[in-house]
Design goal:
mainly alpha, PIN domain-containing protein, 2 strands, globular
């Protein structure tokens, strides 16, 4: 899969993280996607930015629902 970045004017603690956020933002437009990071404080507070533990919770919940 190839995705173009979706430009954003969101502020970043570390500007090097911007590219990962912008690609994840593009992926979210195509469907459910997540940006998994151990440094969630470095990213804007959006629902698709999750820690590894949060992703596991979401996946377990979806398995429970049969999705």
């Amino acid at each position: 899969m190839f995705l173009e970045k979706t430009k954003t004017e969101e502020p970043f603690v570390d500007e090097d993280d911007r590219v990962f956020f912008e690609v994840a933002l593009s992926a979210c437009k195509l469907g459910q996607a997540f940006l998994v990071t151990g440094n969630s404080k470095h990213f804007p507070d959006k629902g698709f930015v999750v820690t590894p533990a949060q992703l596991l919770e979401k996946l377990n919940y979806q398995d429970f629902l049969g999705s």
